[in-house]
Amino acid sequence: MQQTFNRSKSVFRYAFLIVFSLMMVFPLIWMILSSLKTTEEIFAVPITLFPETLQWGNFSGALEMAPFWLYMFNSAFTSICIVILQVVLSSMIAYALTQLKFKGKSLLFNSILITYMLPAAATYVPSYILLSKMGLLDSLTGIVVSNVASVFTIFLLRQAFMQVPKEMIEAARSEGANDFAVLTKVMIPMCKSTIFIAGLIGFVSMYNNYLWPSLIVKSEDKYLITVGLNRFFTNVGSFADTWPFIMAANVLTVVPLLLLFVLLNKWFIKGISDSGLKG
């Protein structure tokens, strides 16, 4: 009886997970299929899921209507630069918060965490003024500079560094290693999975960032993919005539992130299960 109950419980659990997963992924499937349909098929009643003929020309049509390759390059380039700077700076700050002794360390860490509670919009006006005085408005450099600090990455790496065995740190110091050597040869190698997941989350967040870049970038050749996609959506005219191109543009936007997840899925799971993310 108990074995039958456990089997029924497992079947119910897997059935629930399958249904829930399909609900989560259905919008993505619908977007991809819609990008391969004609306008009539998208608005057909009753709804048809699969197109009769795959309309691959929708993608070339979308690329002719807007320079999406340039937008994607801008997003990828700024995201990579931001992630590198965030990881480097956050690693140094996390090392100081865990390995160095100085007055006000707890106050400093708590102050960093408090800034995480602030709404992002509350920082837009002072950040805009600072970038304006630095002459970095309407530039990719301005986007990078204004996003180099990440409270989430600092917190994540601090938690990971705190779980590095003290014996390994003491052994490195006994062999004459300075703080830089301990950070680069002990802390970072021991926490590389957590650093990787922090970088991956940071890349996805910056790639999808919209509101702040839309405020400081006005030139079309400096649009990020999110800004360019919004401009394309609002400027193409009648939605009924161009909906397949809009769906195709959305697919082009999502493809890099999907490829990133597929290629790095093993590292993503390992990073989540690493000590830096355990409760």
Automatic annotation (TrEMBL):
Residues 72-264 form the ABC transmembrane type-1 domain. Keywords: Cell membrane, Membrane, Transmembrane, Transmembrane helix, Transport. GO terms for cellular component: plasma membrane. Gene3D superfamilies: MetI-like. One of its GO terms (biological process) is transmembrane transport. Pfam families: BPD_transp_1. InterPro entries: MetI-like, MetI-like_sf. It is found in: Cell membrane. It is a multi-pass membrane protein. The chain crosses the membrane at residues 12-33, 68-95, 107-130, 136-157, 194-212, 243-264. Belongs to the binding-protein-dependent transport system permease family. This is Carbohydrate ABC transporter permease. It comes from Psychrobacillus soli.
